[in-house]
Amino acid sequence: MPLTKPKVSKRGKEMPASPIRKLIPLADEIKKKGVKVYHLNIGQPDIPTPVEFMNAIRNYPNKVLAYGNSKGDIRLIQSMVEYYERKNIFVQPENIQITTGGSEALIFAMICISDVGEEIIVFEPFYTNYNSFARMADINLVPIPTKAENGYHLPDKKIIEKKITSKTRGILLATPNNPTGTVFTKPEMETIAELAKKHDLFFLSDEVYREFIYEGVHTSVMNMEGIEDRAILLDSISKRYSACGARIGCLVSKNKEVTDTALKLGQSRLCSPSIEQYGAIGALGLPEDYFLAMADEYKRRRDTCHAELMKIPGVFCQKPSGAFYIMAKFPVMDIEDFARWMLSDFSLDGATTMIAPGPGFYASKGMGKDEARIAYVLNVEDLKKAMRILAKGVEQYKKIKGKS
Amino acid sequence: MPLTKPKVSKRGKEMPASPIRKLIPLADEIKKKGVKVYHLNIGQPDIPTPVEFMNAIRNYPNKVLAYGNSKGDIRLIQSMVEYYERKNIFVQPENIQITTGGSEALIFAMICISDVGEEIIVFEPFYTNYNSFARMADINLVPIPTKAENGYHLPDKKIIEKKITSKTRGILLATPNNPTGTVFTKPEMETIAELAKKHDLFFLSDEVYREFIYEGVHTSVMNMEGIEDRAILLDSISKRYSACGARIGCLVSKNKEVTDTALKLGQSRLCSPSIEQYGAIGALGLPEDYFLAMADEYKRRRDTCHAELMKIPGVFCQKPSGAFYIMAKFPVMDIEDFARWMLSDFSLDGATTMIAPGPGFYASKGMGKDEARIAYVLNVEDLKKAMRILAKGVEQYKKIKGKS
What we know:
Two copies of one chain form a homodimer. Chain A contains 13 helices and twelve strands. By secondary structure, chain A is α/β, with parallel strands linked by helices. Chain A is globular and about 60 Å long. In chain A, the strands form three sheets. A seven-stranded mixed sheet of chain A has the order 2-8-7-6-5-3-4, sandwiched between helices. The first copy, chain A, has two domains: 10-48 and 289-399, Aspartate Aminotransferase, domain 1, CATH 3.90.1150.10; 51-284, Type I PLP-dependent aspartate aminotransferase-like (Major domain) (Aspartate Aminotransferase, domain 2). In chain A, helix 5 (101-113) crosses helix 9 and helix 11 (288-311) packs parallel to helix 13 (380-401). Chains A and B meet through helix 1, helix 3, helix 5, helix 6 and helix 9 of A and helix 1, helix 3, helix 5, helix 6 and helix 9 of B.
């Protein structure tokens, strides 16, 4: 036997476990005991994947499931160009690199623009996996807080500018944002564009929730004037076609050096999933009213979720304008303890609710300890049941653990 | 317009373009002109993907294509355990992390065991994308040459040991090897295992060509005694089930810290492709004679390819024992120029041959300039045609450019 036990890397140790997923073993445990778990922790829509997607897969014509093009299936890229056109985003096929999910688009973008130890500015709270991608790429996320009180909109330009250093390579945001649902306004997007131009930075925009907007309009980074070579769009079909299990996304940029680099990264992993790309081509032909019906349904869910949350004594949240999440403050000292307790010690009529603890959505230590992200991805009826359980849970937890 | 043009990262610039794929635009160009291209450049088998895989996909039962488990579909993991058992490799479900292709298994392994600037020893020539993964992970591959003259087997233990420094975290090899087809012997594997134990290293073994063996037997890293916590197996279904477009692989380790870290990496990208995992479950039930028939077919191809290569004046190569590649020396000064010339300036009866230039399979500068990797993934008849074209091409190229 070896004298020493082999050790994993420092970055491997530091890699955060997903705050959205790390409580799953607890959920699995109680499910075995027959307890129903309402999953408000994960952005997994319950909407059926379009039949156009499923039929395409069932009719996959090739006998040999061969490697695809590293840039992506050319028919998929063409479908994406047409989809973007319908969204008033005008790009050419050469501007698009198909990626294995939006996740890969983000990690590719980070590696494309920054070297080890360099910095990308983000706005807290943000999508938790940005932290993991930054650890994988060994770069630093420099967080700038946004506040619930003003709907998690961007702070003053000067506050952002102060965080820009010689190591800063880009500014990253998601619009609509995950976990806050905030839709950034055109003036906000322009502010970031100006900063990118002034300080020689890239502007990275994660727009996977483009169609999930209930108030206001969507502004894409690709339509910011004067930063055509600094704009990088990160995208995914997961949410808009309820096809999260198909790992298909893309990175879009008019900067040829960026797409050339992304293609080299793409070549290293050979290709994105061929069959799921084929399915995506089927879905991308769907007309606009597909999204309108879906946004309508999610608006009802948002209204239900927000109304029910506001009824819980001590809970505070803003009504978000987009995506399908609400970031809410809870009357607890340690949201992670509460989230665990809901799974291991609480149930109501044989059911409980799983939420995503807030700290995972921050890079700053100690932030988000009384917040949780609620994904309103259940139908209105189930959502009401889940929120009733959550309300009762808060009530009982406060009794046991004391008010915060 | 900005005063400065935004720059990509240094590592992005340094990332090598795939030597296997970067000549594809040239091939596409001549295909448009009606020239047929025999692809000996890429390890894309022409064998049909098993109907068991395709039928599973066609019968995918879920209405919502939801996120899967980050560790992998539990049924797929169980099928893998049973597959390994048939190969006399005994592992538990918790030892397996499903990855998005063998590519992701390799990059996960590198990040799991090494920090920025640390080292992994490899044997040249090696699978070209190890270079790309190392650039993404920002680690250094320390190459040790192997020689055609002794079938690219490992050099003396002392030569390997000399390359181990305080920064070394692991030794990586592929058996059977890509691009050399070398099957490492049990004593060779034991030598690496001993070094791993003595110097506190991980032993990473890429075994995606396990079934493609024509002489000798396969020795898995998982069966090396005394290094149970140092052995990391990298695997993929791409080659053995002719399903390269399905991005399904795995990382296997009995070291819990390694699989825990790999799972965190897995959580960051949410899940591997759900539908293609479902297909893989179908394929993994295939009996052993599926592989025997396939190995038989590839043995015929190897014999043809080797015999034809040996007929070309000035070409030298060993007959490999495994995989489906031959690394061959050509009578040219600059193999990349020759490979390009074959695509842009040469054809015979309306067809030409594409090969993978050697330098991409080395980390040492200047190596492999007269070598190419030939993938014998075509049926015997096509292979003969392709080799005839290659022979004529060498003859004519020598006349034009002069002998080396």
